[in-house]
Amino acid sequence: MSKRRQFLQQLGLLSAGLALSPSLLACESSSSSQSAASAGAAVAGGAAASGRGVLKEIGLQLYTLRDYLPKDPKGVIAKVAQAGYQDVETYGYSPTGGYWGLSPKEFKELLKANKLVSTSGHYEFGQYMKDGNLDIVKRYIEAGTTVGHQYITVPYLDGAVRRSADDYKRIAEKTNKAAELCKTANLKLAYHNHAFEFEAYGNTTGYDILLQETDPALVSFEADLYWVVRAGRKPADLFRQHQGRFVMWHVKDMDKTSPDLNTEIGTGSINYQEIFGQAKLAGVHRIFVEQENFAASKDPFQSIRQSRDYVKNTLL
To answer: Which residues does the UniProt record annotate as the domain Xylose isomerase-like TIM barrel (predicted)?
Structure first.
């Protein structure tokens, strides 16, 4: 996690410089509640049946392969396709470096050659959340439109911008504004969580504020299920409270002996069969496998295939 935070912070510094460039101007339900019980029964009629009714394609968050992708993007993307994935979620784009040295058009062509799509991308919003300058968001929209995204996704918030409930209200306001801009390009904005959003501010949390103060017609959420569980929350509770807003999921498992580590889907401590039984309630239609670390003895490409096979054969 610390590596990811450092990476995003470094990218944020890059984005800050670009934002000043003229080129950017171009553009628990109660057991006594019969209704809640009925709702639960309706979606829990079998995880497999629910998953198959909602989810078809399995994606991979490419951050999983961050140690390999910058060195050989073409080879890595080919291996992702060979592992059985149909969709990829990007990370690390910059207007100068593109996607690991590939322009948006070149990356789109690479995806097409491997029969892949990219419906979502993680883009650094750190500087925008500080200064509100939408120029960098315009560049993300340009790139995402070329690649074929449906979602421009906020991946992480720096600690400096999220110290209070009022900070989260300001974040929600800026998120709405960026989402309005995305809408003009037929895109949607999504927000990806970690665990820090669940920290309490009085009788609320940062995540509660974001869910309540962003416009459901404009802003969607990508539920990182590992981080929801790590924060001590139950995904099903969120899905019931905010039905239909969690259009994307990050699916990564928690190591049984070291909860701060990830492991292959189906081998950890998260009950994914139960969670996938709530797919319709959540509103999910895109899932991305992600794994931020691997056992020393595990080949990462074997790992992503193992996780994909478990999702395909057991959860969908």
So the answer is: 77-312
